[in-house]
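User: Can you predict the 3D structure of Phage holin family protein? Sequence below.
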Amino acid sequence: MISKLILRIILNAGAIYLANSLVDGFTFSGNFVMLFFIGGILAVFQSFIYPLLKIIAFPLVLLSFGLFGFIVNAAVLWGISYFFAELTIDGIIPLLLATIVLSAVNVLFAWL
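Assistant: Sure. Here are the predicted structure tokens for Phage holin family protein:
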């Protein structure tokens, strides 16, 4: 459990770094400690809170063919950028593109 959480932190930090490199309008300006801290927040959310949300919101997930999970990930990413000045998102398009990057990394993680 702990090793998967640590791996998830590392992968989320890498996904944020990758999104910073690939997505215009998505900017991470902090140091590596902050990168891993934000990656840790995402990892804790994805490991503990997101599964509960999937159970509670199962009808929405079912009706939206899984798109609701993507929306939840985008909302969490936006919330993190709201509370941490090191992460800035300049609009809805960069938010959606960064969420795609994060989701792709998480899908790859699920295959490990």
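The chain has a mean pLDDT of 90. The CA atoms of residues 45 and 52 lie 10 Å apart.
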